[in-house]
Input
Amino acid sequence: MTGNTYHRAPETIGKAPSGCPMDRQWSPLDPDYLADPYPIASALRDEHPIFYAEQLGHVVVTKMDDIETIFMNPDIYASTNVQDPIFPLAPEAAAVLGADDFDPIAVMSNRPEPDHARIRVYTRQGFSNRRLKTLEEYMRERAGVLLDHMIEAGSPAEYIRALAFPLPAEIVFRFIGFPPEDDAMIKSWCVNRKAFSWGKPTAAEQIEIANGMLDYWRYCRAFVAERRDVRADDFCSELLDAHDADPDPANGTGISYREVESVVYGISFAGHDPVTALLCNTLLCLLPRRDQWNALCADPSLAAAAVDETLRFESSQVSWRRITTRPTNLGGIDLPAGTRILLNFAAANHQADVFEAPETFDIHRANANHHISFGKGIHFCLGSGLARMEARIALELLSERLPSLRLVEGQSFEYFPNITFRGPDVLHLEWDQQ
Ligand code: HEM
Output
């Protein structure tokens, strides 16, 4: 594996830095933490803002200012580990990914400078206002069609199947340029990436996921090759145009062909899974609080604020990772080079000296968008505008068409066991039939 390999499994779990407070028990994969991370994250933060979690082999950083320091100093805190499995891989899964043609390279979230900045010049152009504007019309139309089907089928409905899963996937796949007839196949490949890089799958699950990743990478390569010959009005074609204009990064500009393939591979997961969860989390926050939901129904222009308050209060991404490139000191704790760090967004987004009354969900909160759920600094989420737009449009349509919408009573929510992404596995909704 080269230094820029997209996923690098660790050989061992990380060690405790000497002098760092230690927690031997807690793991973000614990069932009670998965069910509701916020009280536990806040208690951990208040006890030791920085501590080593033995079950995870990571130093956990919980306070907003420390997390921001880390994001703003990428030369000390590299992002090269953000797509890696947390734990060592089973040899059989490693063998699947050892196939000669499984060679995606780090391009965006996990690529260090200066290459990351070089590549981001081209990827940022893909998220231009012009493309977002075109996508907004398509998004509203598709969301409307999916909602029509949900309403026609009648109350109650399972929201993920009806809208929260298909909508973000369709949007990002059309954005990239993948043909609609491949949607179901691509979605099935992307689903288990969450377990691979952020969970603790069994050896058998790892092998299945690794095979899916290999198939998906081969699909991405074949798709880019097709676009190389015949361009369309999509993100992949734009990247290939940029490649044609400046194909050799050796001079410090340009984007290589393998980098184009790898951007396509990476963005398809980043672009839909956390958005599905965000669409659900907005409703989990709003529907039980009828005053907030009614305020939104009365004034749909509150939808954007409701989305940001959800990203603070009940984010679809509750952590991210970094690794130190050299010895450093954070908050009085010495961290050797190679220290793996878990940035605990759940704790920071509920910090009382940053957000007044942090346990109150309030769509009128003035500083809700100071949440850290999209990161900060050079790797700040490229799709934040797209994600916010999708969640806002879904809320606008639902509040307009189904003001009586509510959660089906008595359901309990299951969360897929992983350290980073958070949204319910199923979400049952009901409404008064017109
Ligand atoms: C609610 C939905 C989303 C959340 C919570 C989220 C969160 C994040 C976070 C925390 C980062 C890392 C920031 C850092 O390291 O400083 C990130 C990076 C990124 N996200 Fe998102 N994201 C979401 C949706 C999207 C969408 C829809 C796309 C694309 C279609 C996308 C594409 C990316 C890319 C390409 C990066 C890497 C940027 C870089 O390294 O320069 N994300 N996102």
